[in-house]
Amino acid sequence: MKTKWWTWIMLAAGIAAGLIVYPDMPDRLPVHWGISGEADRFADKTAGLFLLPGIALLLSLFMEVSAGLEARRKHGEANLPNMYIIRNIVVLGLMLLQAYVIYFGYGGQLPISKVMAIVLGLIFIVTGNYMPRLRPNRFVGIRTPYTLSNPDAWRKANRLGGMLFAAGGALMLLTLALPTQLQTNVLPVLIVLTALSQLYARLKAGNAPKP
């Protein structure tokens, strides 16, 4: 089966799951958790069950359009499998979060920090491993005027960004071994540092001297 279709299969499964459990869910479900790990914002169960699939659908459509535009570029076809894999892992992460909302609705007590460590850890590791495989494009990767015009700069910047992304994701998975309270404090710091690492890779590429 083509890689691109897994996105739509996961979306269909997420929407179907929401419809199936809808009658069993409480009237209000969490849609946001604070840094302490406690749910701090609730919405009616329709929004609670279908907000994340809706976000995943919009993201998927955007990337589908981006992939179509990329395919028209020279060598653009080579980017599509990697773009689809990155999209798949992001959608999978959103569907796992939807599964957690359903779990919460049934009275589950697993801390959200454990779920976020798994979801973000996997997204960052997979994305980081595929970033170096991307060729210059305007939709995914470390994109600066310099990297877009210089294939060697693109390769070096995305290799660095990918390694930092994967390392951040691995550290997030390692926090699963920490006590919940300590993990709750450490995980947000790792998320911020991993995000800043991409800014570092971008600035380093942008400040590199042009040949």
From TrEMBL:
Transmembrane segments: 5-22, 42-63, 84-106, 112-131, 160-179
Alphabetical keyword list: Membrane, Transmembrane, Transmembrane helix
Domain of life from the UniProt record: Bacteria
Pfam families xref list: DUF1648, SdpI
Domain DUF1648 residues, every copy: 9-56
InterPro entries: DUF1648, SdpI, SdpI/YhfL
PANTHER family: IMMUNITY PROTEIN SDPI
Protein's name according to its UniProt entry: SdpI family protein
